[in-house]
Amino acid sequence: MKLLPKNLALGLLCLGSALALADGPASAAGQAPLAAAAVADATRPDADKARDADRKPADMLAFAKIQPGQVVVDYFAGRGYFTRLFSTAVGPQGAVYAVAPQVWLDRLKGKPLPPPVSAEPGRGNVHEVVGAASLNVPAKADVVWTSQNYHDIRIWNGAAGTAELNKAVYAALKPGGYYIVLDHAAQPGLDEAGMAKLHRIDEALVKQEVLAAGFVLDAESQALRNPKDDRSAQVFETGIRAHTDQFILRFRKP
């Protein structure tokens, strides 16, 4: 067998790696009809629909490769924006686990929680659970999703907290399953104090921590990038809220 010249072989390897991580329209085309149908679900609350222009849910579901019959974990689901979309997309043969982190419940100190999505009509495939050292999900998951909250775990519990989370996600996933992390982008090297002040996190830090848990980086999406955001403002400030520069990373369990 004839070998390729060393520089050509290296170039092809780099090109292949770049293509694998560039998850563009072509790779998501097969997911588009299902994602669009989930977004068009008439039972979604108006409050959810009002956020669609900023959150681009069809792109998010396609990137996460959500399929009917899957088990999906929505970690730190909040008011259930993505939980409802996942519920529709996986259908009655699938299951969605909306996991509330114990650290978040502890911080609420008895304040009212958002109403459970599982109580809404047609959401019988949704299950609310509390996760601490494990995600507390009874079935192996195809996808674990967390959006705009990884930085909170890092702020509240430090590197040990996100290490515990990533270990729990790895254990909860099937081999080949996906871990999607979406969060507000920070300037490179943002320190702990900066994270707590701005509610942002350095994308490189997230990659470092998740890869250390045994995952491989499968793809990145540019769908929520905003070059006008210089990443210096706190994410809740008027003018930048809902318009932050956000990274979306898809990791895979080998």
Description of the molecule:
With 254 residues, this protein is of the alpha/beta class. The chain has eleven helices and seven strands. Helix content is 39%, strand content 20%. Strand 2, helix 8 and strand 3 form a beta-alpha-beta unit. The two termini are 30 Å apart. 39% of the residues are buried. The model is unreliable at 1-20 (pLDDT under 50). It comes from Duganella violaceipulchra. GO terms for molecular function: methyltransferase activity. This is Methyltransferase. Keywords: Methyltransferase, Signal, Transferase.
- Return the CATH topology: Rossmann fold
Outline: globular
Spatial strand arrangement across the major sheet = 3-2-1-4-5-7-6
CATH architecture: 3-Layer(aba) Sandwich
The CATH class label is Alpha Beta
Low-confidence stretches: 1-20
β content, as a range? 15-25%
Q: Secondary-structure element order, as H and E?
A: HHHHHHEHEHEEHEHHEE
Largest sheet: 7 strands, mixed
| Total strand segments | 7
CATH superfamily: Vaccinia Virus protein VP39
Structural class computed from helices and strand pairing: alpha/beta
The average pLDDT score comes to 90
N-C termini distance: 30 Å
Keywords: Methyltransferase, Signal, Transferase
InterPro entries: S-AdoMet-dep_MeTrfase_Alr7345
Organism: Duganella violaceipulchra
Protein name: Methyltransferase
Write the layout of secondary structure elements.
Blueprint: H1 6-21, H2 25-28, H3 32-39, H4 46-49, H5 52-55, H6 57-63, E1 71-75, H7 81-90, E2 95-101, H8 102-108, E3 126-131, E4 141-147, H9 150-172, E5 173-184, H10 192-198, H11 203-212, E6 216-221, E7 246-252
Parallel strand pairs: 1-2, 1-4, 2-3, 4-5
Antiparallel strand pairs: 5-7, 6-7
InterPro entries: S-AdoMet-dep_MeTrfase_Alr7345 (IPR016980)
Protein name: Methyltransferase
Keywords: Methyltransferase, Signal, Transferase
